[in-house]
């Protein structure tokens, strides 16, 4: 079992390394497959043996092999986090269709939320990738005779509620946030989408309040909401069903 966890972690860390490339290149409108990664300072192409997730960073002590420029600690952190999230997904779902579906969603969320933090923008190419990949899973469900209505409603409610909020409040949240919720809804289905929306507002208000109280942000500053949706969606994947049971037992 430990060996299997190790394999899943390494797989996740390798995907995380690819997600780093996406996070860096998508806002610059560069191809995510070509050319190979190079140092952003000295432009030297990074050799394969220096691209081993996490290990290379530690081995090179966080510096470029050629020019010694510092490499952001964010790269190994994202590789590590993706690895851990893949392992938790595996513990929860085993090797299953849900595992495949949720590691795709988690990967998308890592990319979208980090780009949102960097640029306060959500790029349509990432939204489109989300819609297409959810459509593939819904196609598999149809083929397996699993009803997909809940997922369509999830997308409609997720994207729709955010759109409504944007129209009413005129700002505060951006259309990118509605796009993220649409994609999450398509992956999560109606019930879990409601939990996710609920959690994202709680997480958003708590962290927003803390940022304002600690003086890091003022009321007028724009705080990207995408990362909160991403955190809420990931929490929902793992404990959404439990929250739902708890919630409904309190009401009924
Ligand atoms: Zn360099």
TrEMBL record:
Residues 10-93 form the Prepilin peptidase A24 N-terminal domain. Coiled coil: none annotated. One of its GO terms (molecular function) is aspartic-type endopeptidase activity. Keywords: Cell membrane, Membrane, Transmembrane, Transmembrane helix. GO terms for cellular component: plasma membrane. It comes from the Bacteria. It is a multi-pass membrane protein. It is found in: Cell membrane. InterPro entries: Prepilin_IV_endopep_pep, Prepilin_pept_A24_N, Prepilin_peptidase/N-MTase. GO terms for biological process: signal peptide processing. It holds the Pfam family A24_N_bact. The chain crosses the membrane at residues 6-26, 73-93, 122-144, 150-168, 180-213, 225-247. Residues 103-209 form the Prepilin type IV endopeptidase peptidase domain. Belongs to the peptidase A24 family. This is Type 4 prepilin-like proteins leader peptide-processing enzyme. It comes from Clostridium magnum DSM 2767. The gene is comC.
């Amino acid at each position: 079992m430990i060996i299997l966890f190790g394999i899943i972690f390494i797989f996740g860390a390798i995907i995380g390394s690819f997600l780093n490339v996406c996070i860096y290149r998508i806002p610059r409108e560069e191809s995510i497959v070509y050319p190979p990664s190079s140092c952003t300072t000295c432009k030297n192409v990074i050799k394969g043996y220096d691209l081993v997730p996490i290990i290379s960073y530690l081995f090179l002590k966080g510096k470029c092999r050629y020019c010694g420029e510092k490499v952001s600690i964010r790269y190994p952190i994202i590789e590590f986090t993706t690895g851990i999230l893949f392992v938790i997904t595996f513990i929860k779902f085993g090797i299953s269709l849900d595992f495949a579906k949720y590691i795709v969603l988690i990967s998308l969320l890592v990319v979208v939320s980090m780009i949102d933090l960097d640029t306060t923008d959500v790029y349509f190419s990432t939204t489109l990738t989300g819609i297409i990949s959810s459509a593939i899973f819904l196609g598999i469900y149809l083929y397996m005779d699993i009803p997909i209505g809940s997922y369509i409603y999830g997308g409609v409610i997720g994207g729709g509620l955010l759109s409504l909020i944007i129209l009413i409040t005129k700002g505060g949240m951006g259309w990118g946030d509605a796009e993220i919720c649409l994609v999450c809804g398509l992956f999560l289905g109606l019930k879990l989408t409601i939990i996710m929306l609920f959690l994202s507002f709680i997480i958003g208000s708590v962290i927003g309040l803390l940022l304002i109280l600690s003086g890091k942000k003022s009321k007028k500053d724009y705080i990207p909401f995408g990362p909160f949706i991403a955190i809420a969606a990931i929490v929902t994947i793992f404990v959404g069903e439990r929250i739902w049971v708890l919630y409904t037992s309190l009401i009924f």
